[in-house]
């Protein structure tokens, strides 16, 4: 059953049409990676999935809620959609534990005590237990990104969106973050991942979407996309990056 359903999605910045009538679905528990050249609309599509970008046409239904409807409560919907950004977006003045517990407590999802327990459990999952009392400026980029993943998970989301989560990291930090994401996938988390990590897309995803110039050019399983692409443009892109 589809947990994400996108129909005819359009998005423009001024006269520049960035998304040109996108259709896509994501099933519960599915991992979908979105690949393509820079400027193809990948990150904009992801940001439309929790309405961080204003949508100009079409619809986005997440877990049965049409978030493009004027009647929808987007703040309520966002509580079920975890988002991990390229640049972490941690609060520098809060400890790691406080960064993770802030939203669940402020939104009345948990007591402080419950949130602290959950944060410690999540820190263990992402391999960062010893950093609970540290502050973001003392962490490496890879460590910050693992904390950002734990923070998103603290809201117990139904869907996790990742916007190029490793592209700002030093190469030696990338593996730790991808391992956390792979563990999440193995646990059945529904994930949509915009990525340049072709190895991750090939190994972990159930489906790969190739985008170019605001269109979905190809949407298929990793074996087809990487070994037998149906579209010449997909093959051309992969020949350059692999």
UniProtKB/TrEMBL annotation:
Domain of life the protein comes from: Bacteria
Key words of the record: ATP-binding, Nucleotide-binding, Transport
Please report the stretch or stretches of sequence annotated as the ABC transporter domain. Answer: 4-238
- What is an example of a Pfam family matching this protein? ABC_tran
By its UniProt entry, which CDD domains does this protein fall under?
ABC_HisP_GlnQ
The record's listing under InterPro entries reads: AAA+_ATPase, ABC_ATPase_HisP-typ, ABC_transporter-like_ATP-bd, ABC_transporter-like_CS, MetN_ABC_transporter-like, P-loop_NTPase
Give the Gene Ontology MF terms in alphabetical order.
ABC-type amino acid transporter activity; ATP binding; ATP hydrolysis activity
Q: Which interval of the chain is the signal sequence? A: none
In its UniProt entry, what is this protein called?
Answer: Polar amino acid transport system ATP-binding protein
Species assigned in the record:
Facklamia miroungae
Its taxonomic path starts at:
Bacteria, Bacillati, Bacillota, Bacilli, Lactobacillales
